[in-house]
Design goal:
This protein is an alpha/beta fold. It contains five helices and eight strands. The strands form two sheets. It has a six-stranded mixed β-sheet with strand order 4-3-5-7-6-8. A two-stranded antiparallel ribbon has the order 1-2.
Length: 188
């Protein structure tokens, strides 16, 4: 997991402001130590993901290595999960209930057609993290989903997708334009 580091320039800004206003300038104290902003922790329950369990864990790890503002962790005993992951015979899809919450369906239909399970997992988790489908799209775009074709096995979000998730979870929790709608099923 990456940790976003924030630095405080308030002391320096105040010293400059006071000196510009004609007030007595005082030497700035030593720089403020760096502070880390904790990632928002989302738990996932992959106990119903059957043969896709490893792909789900890999998809979560890919997001954890790609963004700082959110971390996906397996649910622990007695804990309620933000994300449920289930296997079924349909097409892969995600149903969001709110940002960071919902159900991912690892559909066997796409796997039977030759789509990569880790890419499917990372793509569907991307919906839970607030990303919409971007079809048609190139293989370099995780959210292009099936439109990239069965030969595409890239499970990594591109820079724009990473930035959008950072915006969704970093600081103010507001929805951004183009983000995945809540309370709907996104067939990816």
């Amino acid at each position: 997991m990456h940790v976003r580091k924030l630095t405080s320039g308030l002391t320096a800004a105040l010293a400059v402001t006071f000196s510009l206003m004609g007030s007595q300038a005082v030497a700035a104290p030593a720089p403020v130590a760096e502070r880390t902003a904790a990632a928002r922790i989302l738990t996932y329950d992959a106990s119903g993901s059957a043969e896709f369990r490893t792909a789900v864990d890999r998809g979560a790890a890919i997001w954890n290595n790609s963004v700082d503002a959110v971390e996906l962790r397996p649910v622990t005993t007695g804990q309620r999960a933000n994300i449920r992951v289930l296997a079924d015979n349909g097409w892969p899809r995600a149903q969001t209930t709110s940002l960071g919450n919902g159900t991912v369906y690892m559909g066997r239909q796409a796997v039977d057609q030759g789509y990569d399970t880790i890419r499917i997992s990372a793509h569907e988790l991307g919906h839970i993290l607030g990303l919409p489908d971007r079809k048609p799209g190139p293989c370099s775009s995780l959210m292009s989903g099936s439109s990239a074709g069965t030969a595409c096995t890239n499970p990594n979000p591109n820079a724009a997708e990473k930035a959008e998730v950072e915006d969704n979870f970093g600081g103010v929790l507001t929805r951004t334009a183009g983000a995945a709608p809540l309370g709907v099923v996104i067939v990816g």
